[in-house]
DNA sequence: CGTGAACTTCACAAATTTCTGAAGACAGCG
DNA sequence: CGCTGTCTTCAGAAATTTGTGAAGTTCACG
């Protein structure tokens, strides 16, 4: 991938297109979002889907990621993504459960805000610790079932060892990331 | 063509795990597999599915993993897993494409053998290099779209940096694994 | 307390995925 | 050459997943 650092062209044009269809009329909730940004949302969401996240949660999450404050209301999400309130509700439940967003509510308001849970969402997203544990556990049972002195047993045992190794490595890796990111 | 007059027997559910019975006749291909091992296959396959692999490829792969030689014929797979030859064909195509198995054919035989590609299948399975590259690339575009001096831009940029970091780390990690595994 | 805004739940329709039977293609063998 | 065993392709049935409309619930506020 190209390494572009030096001559960053004066690119402010992107941020200035923010008002295509702002209704002058009664309290329009919608904040028109740049077509480029919408395209990114869909592209990013598609990759989340590919990684296993359901479609609506992916789109909602992507929209939150590029939102100025990292937070949007239910209505804003429904409007921007052209989906029903029910779809927003489902997506938001999924994301909250996954620990990726937080539900906020201004006291004395019926309106909820959904906010990115922290600025390190990808740590949550890539955290597969519990999965690795289960893989290892399943595999160890398998070793027992096929007999540990068989070829199959040795295959499974090595796989289990790999997942055990992975668990240790990933922990260390995240520590290195936290250090590294302060240098960015 | 609707076949309503034909009294279609109730669809055999996949859950009904029929006991593998050795046919008395000569040349029975099937090798009865222990119920414990079958249970492991299904459990392991379920975890592969959870990780994103389609059901049939997962089951086929699991069956190969616990097979004595790490290889089975199409017929053996169909029989053991109670699936149609078509399903085996599809699963095997998927697995070969993914680089997890190898197709073998004894010269002068019409029968194919599917063999685990190597004893380090999990290296292949966990190799997400290309994915990471695409994530990073998508994210960099996003930074550009939202403007790199916005909050959203900084969020995306940090995420991109994380995926770049991951790419480097995973490479090193696999090297450490190869060293470590020789000590097992 | 009643009203209505805002979110949630539910049942169903639509879209998608998955597996099967059946026909097809390919290759060894008589 | 044609037969037969083995794998592949294909159309369609079944199951599953998804998203919507509409009814239900909750709660701030009058």
Automatic annotation (TrEMBL), chains A, B:
InterPro entries, alphabetized: ArsR-like_HTH (IPR011991), HTH-GbsR_regulator (IPR052362), HTH_MarR-typ (IPR000835), WH-like_DNA-bd_sf (IPR036388), WH_DNA-bd_sf (IPR036390)
GO terms assigned for molecular function: DNA binding; DNA-binding transcription factor activity
CDD domains referenced in this protein's UniProt entry, alphabetically: HTH_ARSR (cd00090)
Keyword list, A-Z: DNA-binding, Transcription, Transcription regulation
Domain HTH marR-type: residue ranges: 52-112
Biased composition (Low complexity): 1-16
Region named Disordered: 1-27
Listed name of the protein: MarR family transcriptional regulator
Species annotation: Actinacidiphila bryophytorum
Classification of source organism: Bacteria, Bacillati, Actinomycetota, Actinomycetes, Kitasatosporales
């Amino acid at each position: 991938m190209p390494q572009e650092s030096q001559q960053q062209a004066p690119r402010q044009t992107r941020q200035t297109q923010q008002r295509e269809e702002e209704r002058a009329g009664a309290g329009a909730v919608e904040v028109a979002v740049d077509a480029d940004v919408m395209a990114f949302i869909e592209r990013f969401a598609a990759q989340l889907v590919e990684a296993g996240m359901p479609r609506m949660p992916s789109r909602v999450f992507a929209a939150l990621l590029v939102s100025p404050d990292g937070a949007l209301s239910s209505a804003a999400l429904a409007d921007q993504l052209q989906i029903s309130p029910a779809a927003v509700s489902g997506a938001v439940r999924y994301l909250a459960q996954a620990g990726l967003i937080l539900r906020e509510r201004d006291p004395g308001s019926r309106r909820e805000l959904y906010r990115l849970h922290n600025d390190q969402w990808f740590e949550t997203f890539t955290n597969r610790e519990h999965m690795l544990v289960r893989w290892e556990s399943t595999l160890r049972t398998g070793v027992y079932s096929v007999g540990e002195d068989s070829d199959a047993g040795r295959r499974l045992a090595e796989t289990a060892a790999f997942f055990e190794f992975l668990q240790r490595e990933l922990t260390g890796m995240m520590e290195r990331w936290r250090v590294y990111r302060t240098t960015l």
